[in-house]
Amino acid sequence: MNNSLIKDEFDLLQSLIELKQQRQIVELGCGAADLSRKLLARYSDCDVTGLEVDKSQHAKNLLNPVQRLQFVQAGAQAIPFPEATFDLALMLKSLHHVPLDKMDQALLEVYRVLRPKGLLYVSEPVFAGDLNEVIRLFHDEEVVRTAAQRALKDAVSSGIWEQVSEIRFETPVHFRNFDEFERRLIGITYLDHRLDSTTLELVRARFEAHMVADGAHFVRPMQLNLLRKC
Fold this sequence. Notes:
CATH superfamily: Vaccinia Virus protein VP39
Shape: globular
Number of helices: 8
Oligomer: single chain
Distance between the termini: 25 Å
């Protein structure tokens, strides 16, 4: 499945993990908790806890409750649960948002709250591709994405994790127009992007170079690491 185009990462997740056997799941950096909600809709025997550090998003999540889904405002570097609480931890595009000096601690925290042989699924964007070239004009993530990959390698090298899978894949990203791009990626609540007019126009020009009749189509390269607690 290396370098395959994956339209829905949930399919990849299901192919790698027996989700019906995971009773207690935590999603770290859950955002709007789309994945958590999909899990609960498909697997009726699990309970999911969604951690989100962004206050605005956490407040929105509380206004849209789902049975068996608990929301907690917290970061991965300080998970407010006892050791050996969860069977599975999920981090989708969230490890690189952990503060640089807290990434190793976050992975240790995940290790602590997982049960023996528990699984950690980490999916991270690779610093490459046309979409990345647009975003880096106002938000360059090369340092934090590199640090996230280094933290994962160090975690495996420590001997407390077994690496079950390491997979490169690509996922399609579509925007109808620049307004949608601006709303989804510039207007996010967990980062304060205040673009001056010159930068905004540079971003617009680079984005609109990819526009076709039905919008702008991109392919985002991703790396997946599936780890098991030793």
